Amino acid sequence: MDYINNKFDCIVVGAGHAGCEAALASARLGLKVLLCSLNMDNIALMPCNPAIGGPAKSTLVREIDALGGQMGVTADATYLQMKTLNMSKGPAVRALRAQSDKKEYIQYMHNVIQSNSNIYLKQCCISKLLAKDDKITGAVDEYGIEYIAPTVILTTGTSLEAKIWVGLNSYQAGRLGEMPAHGLSKSLIDLGFYIKRLKTGTPQRVDKRTIDFSKMQEEYGDNELSFYSFRPDRPIRKQYPCYLTKTNEETHRIIRENLDKSPMYQGYIHAAGPRYCPSIEDKIVRFKNNPSHHIFVEPEGLSTYEMYIQGFSSSLPAEVQIKMLRTLPGLEHAHVIKPAYAVEYDYVPAVQNTHSLMTKHVKGLFMAGQINGTSGYEEAAAQGLIAGINAFNYLNKSEMLELSRSSSYIGTLIDDLVTKDIEEPYRMLTSRSEYRLLLRQDNADFRLSEIGHKIGLLDEEQYKRFLNKKETVIQEIQRLKDTKLSATDEVNQKLEQYGEHLDKGIRLAELIKRPNITYKLLQELEPETKKLNLTKDVYEEVEILIKYDGYLKRQEDQVMNAGRLEKIKIPENIDYSSIEHISTETREKLEKIRPVTIGQASRIGGVKPADLSVLMVMLERHNYSKQKDNC
């Protein structure tokens, strides 16, 4: 493509986490990509919490890595602390969390992007989209310069017509110190899209030198490290603690007495905020019987004194924020570097997209990240990766990558977005997946590496490494099934420390099924197991597959049963208004979302089971699927 004349294969608008993954995926597959950012210094910025992962989100990061994405590699290279959460619970909810060095993360990602010769960076604000015959043809920036491309990926974050609130004062900005994006919302409306508003927020940043950490509880990382990327040679870095403090009645009193200064409670902000990450004033109102709330104080990086006050986001006036902050133990003399604020912004409800993240009525136009109504870096990056892959597929007339709910959290995330009306910022949770026992963070490579290799983002070396790991896991499971442990006095002496005892010999696979028995204990009990010296990721996989075998098979049966509905296709040209005996609400919902299968239709809110039955009978009677095939 002729980049000198502003002609590209793909234009990516926005260089946050979605934009970085989208640009890298499409560029690595061979497209010439223009990556536009409002500020080149803020590529892959973490405008809120400087952390990657956590419950459900860690699974997304592992899936991104298994498909050949970048986020996991960058998080592994720039962590300040690595910690696995929920270790006392089952494997479906265990989650790795990395406290990241914010500036190092930006620099690392910036270097990866700059080293790709297919990516051309541009600091500009895209204010208009160009389209012809319902196909995207390019974009225009605020200076009137046209960029021509047959694919455009919008990853605009919180920038679209954005407004920041601190108390009852507001000004136009997408993030603190950064301009908003004007014009693009109008251009989308002109193209036939409908747009809504959402709200999010971020807490104060406090000077580390003004904090008394002796009054706080230290929170350390893991001694035995885990990583996001399945690739080798992850750096072992020094870990730094985070800190825990709590709100108290004085904190709550100050907040309650100043709710009249909150733009949200005074009705100035009408957009819905994130349910699962509420502001501190929202917590005090909604959970008024709670005497205190946990507040985590976290480092933003080694080259800054800024500390992030997690759990304390607010839109109250700056002077009120200081008063309530100084009621927290250890923060009595805190100096606020940056105030907390709320931000309202436009988003484009993702029911206007297909599962490929391409829009339904403008071909070649894709959307990913917060523009689709999500919150979170990991959710954004996952969508950006899929959009980047599918921009390449669209140009090459290849089959679109549309991951199923049963294959991944990425598939669950996108299916929820394109099927359900999102009225508040969507956050990935383990509870959103009906198949979460199968979709764990530990087995993301088993589920998605073959897809990543087939696409072309996972190279031969990485793929061979995965195949070797897979073979090792299979062989070790079989060895444990074949190997018998004798009930010796020495064995029972060790087992009794864990509340276990053997009356007779037992196969190792049966022994590890017991709740108190781990693979690491087997290494102490049986010489051959110790001699193998398997890596942590391998023996953890072996242990989970054996210990939870019955539950896994049950969920696999559940996937098969649900898959029957996914196989019943609904033709694109179906006229829902002509279908009798279904409710008006169901007809309107089906017409709006236009599901591609009965399975997807069953997940649309407001669609009644009885109406689905009518639809299935109608499809069978009129043989719509056959008619479509003959078209």
Account of the protein in words:
The chain has 631 residues and is an alpha+beta fold. Among the domains are: 205-344, Elongation Factor Tu (Ef-tu), domain 3 (Beta Barrel), CATH 2.40.30.260; 466-555, tRNA uridine 5-carboxymethylaminomethyl modification enzyme MnmG/GidA (Arc Repressor Mutant, subunit A, Orthogonal Bundle), CATH 1.10.10; 567-630, DNA polymerase, domain 1, CATH 1.10.150. Helices cover 36% and strands 17% of the residues. It has 22 helices and 23 strands. Strands 15-16-17-18-14-19 form a six-stranded antiparallel sheet, with no helix packed on it. The chain has a five-stranded parallel sheet with strand order 6-2-1-10-21, with helices on one face. A four-stranded antiparallel sheet has the order 12-11-20-13, with no helix packed on it. The longest helix is centred in the last third of the chain and has 23 residues, at 460-482. The protein starts with 9 loop residues before the first strand and ends with a helix. The relative contact order is 0.12.
